[in-house]
Amino acid sequence: MRIWSLHPKYLDPAGLVALWRETLLAKHVLEDKTKGYKNHPQLIRFKKTSKPTDAINQYLEEVFTEASLRGYNFNPDKFTKEYHPIQITVTNEQLKFEFNHLVNKLKKRNFVLYEKLLQLDEIEPHPLFEVIEGPIEDWEII
Hints:
It contains five helices and two strands; from the N terminus they run H-H-H-E-H-H-E. The protein has helices at residues 13-30, 44-47, 52-69, 92-109, 111-118; strands at 88-91, 129-132. A two-stranded parallel ribbon has the order 1-2.
């Protein structure tokens, strides 16, 4: 499971669809609707918020928005837009780590997007995240 700290606009079609599915799974975990993945490292930052389900719904809304901009038909009934906005911090080194991880994936499966992303001067996070100075997150499996 990879719930990117990066803005979903950087993902290729396969990555965006995978993100949608994995985040829906994460939502089910946070809602206690599944027995698997309960201790997955990607969920730690959501669990640390005052309202984990609000945070994951806010995350899903942005993924849905990006998918809609691309003409995809993701189901808006899979998440609720009734949430209290939350801001989660992510370290600048974590964001860089994830960007490099994505770029390495894209080098194999979407070379055009790979070359485009290499030209970026700045990496934009998913709007749920506020970037702070710091190392790669402790929960990241390197």
